[in-house]
Inverse folding.
């Protein structure tokens, strides 16, 4: 092997999978801002359910860090299409894990609060027992287990994610605020609204920590600090819109029965990020206030076209 071939075989840079989604777009933006070299592959460029294709992609690009933002996120559909959801949420991470193990890459895999039962009363620690109550949660747990089976596998659980690059709760509430006089919103589910751009920055920090050895492999929780209910979240959205938050009325989960059960309690603890010397994410209200103008701008632009 000549020096050029040897240099080319050394893993370097980042690979973002699921790059076309909301979080994938934000990860790319954060990597670019940080001056990191990266390759972004969306689902048309790489079929993560094809183990051979995944292996070829990693051999071609030789990344030092892979950030997997791809996921089946249609929670209710997973109840009747669990095999399809498992292919993306379970099998695909397993293929990535196997390829990363062979090439020596760090794998950062994004997971969810749905792996828990959602019946806690204090924040879930990273090592809390999992007990998913939905098909979606089961498929995401399968993906976690595959990633945690390799030496350099990292799982970052998040929840209540919103941003500019795709459909999400904030954009839905902005739309409904413009067409409904009042809005009934669930007040018996607690969680941590999390801006996808903040999570993207956290993933970049974690990847860097993994490379220098300051962030051990394993499970991390990537959600904003603080907590609220969907009702409280919506009132804050209305306040930022400059409209009356009292237009939002509290109701219970029984008023919105869905095929997949929603966790009543999705608050996650952040001890492992702190232990790795990485500052946990800021309070959800502060993040939403910063994110809101851009989300609103994108919403208005799309609805004026």
């Amino acid at each position: 092997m000549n020096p050029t071939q040897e240099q080319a075989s050394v893993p370097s840079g980042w690979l973002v999978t699921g790059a076309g989604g909301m979080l994938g777009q934000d990860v790319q933006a954060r990597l670019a801002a940080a001056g990191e070299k990266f390759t972004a592959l969306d689902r048309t460029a790489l079929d993560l359910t094809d183990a051979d294709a995944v292996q070829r992609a990693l051999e071609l690009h030789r990344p030092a860090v892979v950030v997997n933002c791809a996921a089946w996120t249609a929670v209710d559909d997973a109840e009747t299409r669990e095999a399809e959801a498992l292919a993306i949420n379970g099998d695909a991470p397993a293929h990535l894990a196997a390829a990363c193990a062979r090439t020596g890459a760090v794998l950062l895999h994004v997971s969810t609060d749905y792996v828990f039962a959602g019946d806690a009363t204090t924040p879930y620690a990273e090592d809390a027992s999992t007990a998913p109550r939905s098909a979606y949660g089961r498929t995401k747990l399968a993906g976690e287990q595959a990633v945690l089976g390799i030496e350099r596998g990292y799982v970052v659980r998040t929840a209540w994610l919103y941003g500019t690059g795709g459909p999400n709760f904030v954009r839905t509430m902005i739309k409904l605020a413009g067409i409904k006089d009042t809005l009934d919103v669930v007040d018996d589910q607690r969680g941590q609204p999390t801006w996808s751009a903040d999570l993207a920055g956290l993933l970049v920090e974690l990847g860097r920590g993994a490379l220098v050895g300051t962030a051990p492999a394993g499970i991390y929780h990537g959600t904003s600090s603080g907590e609220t209910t969907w009702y409280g979240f919506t009132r804050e959205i209305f306040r930022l819109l400059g409209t009356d938050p009292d237009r939002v009325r509290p109701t219970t989960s029984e008023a919105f029965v869905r095929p997949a059960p929603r966790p009543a309690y999705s608050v996650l603890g952040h001890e492992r990020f702190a232990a790795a010397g990485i500052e946990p994410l800021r309070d959800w209200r502060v993040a939403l206030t910063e994110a809101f103008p851009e989300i609103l701008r994108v919403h208005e632009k799309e609805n004026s076209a």
Remarks:
- The longest strand covers residues 106-112.
- The radius of gyration is 19 Å.
- The CA atoms of residues 172 and 299 lie 10 Å apart.
